[in-house]
TrEMBL record:
<dbReference type="InterPro" id="IPR034683">
    <property type="entry name" value="IspD/TarI"/>
</dbReference>
<dbReference type="GO" id="GO:0050518">
    <property type="term" value="F:2-C-methyl-D-erythritol 4-phosphate cytidylyltransferase activity"/>
</dbReference>
<feature type="site" description="Transition state stabilizer">
    <location>
        <position position="22"/>
    </location>
</feature>
<keyword id="KW-0414">Isoprene biosynthesis</keyword>
<feature type="site" description="Positions MEP for the nucleophilic attack">
    <location>
        <position position="152"/>
    </location>
</feature>
<keyword id="KW-0548">Nucleotidyltransferase</keyword>
<comment type="pathway">
    <text>Isoprenoid biosynthesis; isopentenyl diphosphate biosynthesis via DXP pathway; isopentenyl diphosphate from 1-deoxy-D-xylulose 5-phosphate: step 2/6.</text>
</comment>
<keyword id="KW-0808">Transferase</keyword>
<dbReference type="Pfam" id="PF01128">
    <property type="entry name" value="IspD"/>
</dbReference>
<protein>
    <recommendedName>
        <fullName>2-C-methyl-D-erythritol 4-phosphate cytidylyltransferase</fullName>
        <ecNumber>2.7.7.60</ecNumber>
    </recommendedName>
</protein>
<dbReference type="GO" id="GO:0019288">
    <property type="term" value="P:isopentenyl diphosphate biosynthetic process, methylerythritol 4-phosphate pathway"/>
</dbReference>
<comment type="similarity">
    <text>Belongs to the IspD/TarI cytidylyltransferase family. IspD subfamily.</text>
</comment>
<dbReference type="InterPro" id="IPR029044">
    <property type="entry name" value="Nucleotide-diphossugar_trans"/>
</dbReference>
<dbReference type="InterPro" id="IPR001228">
    <property type="entry name" value="IspD"/>
</dbReference>
<feature type="site" description="Transition state stabilizer">
    <location>
        <position position="15"/>
    </location>
</feature>
<feature type="site" description="Positions MEP for the nucleophilic attack">
    <location>
        <position position="208"/>
    </location>
</feature>
<dbReference type="InterPro" id="IPR018294">
    <property type="entry name" value="ISPD_synthase_CS"/>
</dbReference>
């Protein structure tokens, strides 16, 4: 089984409150994005990587790629004003109809065995995501006034990678642009078209490094993995 992967990495890291793109922050001696890229560089199932970044950060990305000796990065494309746009620009550089995964640059800890399970599920159903069941009770509230407790039995926290047939996800992004549909993940663009997306049970360690404490957690998980 082979797949391509699009890695959106053109964000601003606002919630990280760092003075640089959070993907360049040090994690165990190398930039966070280097850990994410390494996962796919070392996966024999991965045929190519498309990286979407900010043009004014291309030099930093290229320095990291050169230093780490990465060789699967087929294209470094200019990202967009939001994640959806960055992903679309990455997809636009792909042809054919193989499986494509879309994986946040900010998720450096995904287990490659789960990636393979996702690829096989995507092969079977055409669209699938990694997700984990929620562990907290979820409230709906307005101005901090609780209006409803949501039954969490049917709720999952979506992660990445998210896997699709390339033609399916490209069409969904195109239609989203035409209709103005916005989604914080790629599966939601298929859902908006009434298309089915299946879940592969993921791993709570596959965190998205978003706020400062996430970097501490990520370091802990990497240290634990290497012992
Ligand atoms: N215009 C954007 C915004 C986000 N991303 C990428 O999408 C992934 C998930 O986004 P998030 O974790 O929200 O990153 P940021 O948008 O940088 O964070 P924040 O929302 O705190 O600014 C990240 O790898 C980020 O680099 C992107 O490629 N292009
Ligand atoms: C794609 C994602 O990681 C799935 O949980 C999430 O939607 C990204 O959200 P962000 O606000 O762009 O980090």
């Amino acid at each position: 089984m082979k797949y391509s992967v699009v890695i959106p990495a053109a964000g601003s890291g606002t919630r990280m409150k760092a003075n640089q793109n959070k993907l360049f922050l040090d994690l165990m001696g190398k930039p966070l994005i280097a850990h994410t890229l390494k996962l796919f560089e070392e996966d024999a199932w991965c045929s190519k990587i498309i990286l979407a970044g900010k043009p004014d950060e291309f030099q930093i990305f290229n320095e990291i790629i050169k230093k780490e000796g990465f060789c699967k990065i087929e294209a470094l494309v200019a990202g967009g004003s939001d994640r959806q746009e960055s992903v679309k620009k990455g997809l636009d550089s792909l042809k054919g109809d193989e499986i494509v995964l879309i994986h946040d640059g900010a998720r450096p800890l995904v287990d490659i065995k789960l990636v393979h399970q996702l690829v096989m599920e995507t092969e079977k159903t055409g669209a699938a995501i990694l997700a984990v069941p929620l562990k907290d009770t979820i409230k709906k509230a307005y101005n901090k006034k609780i209006v409803e407790t949501i039954d969490r039995e049917a709720l999952w926290a979506a992660q990445t990678p998210q896997g699709f047939k390339l033609s399916t996800i490209k069409a969904a992004h195109e239609k989203a642009v035409l209709s103005g549909v916005k989604g914080t993940d790629d599966a939601s663009l298929l859902e908006a078209l009434g298309q089915a997306v299946t879940i592969v049970h993921g791993d709570y360690r596959n965190i998205k490094v978003t706020t400062p404490e996430d970097l501490v957690v990520a370091e802990h998980f990497i240290t634990g993995r290497e012992t």
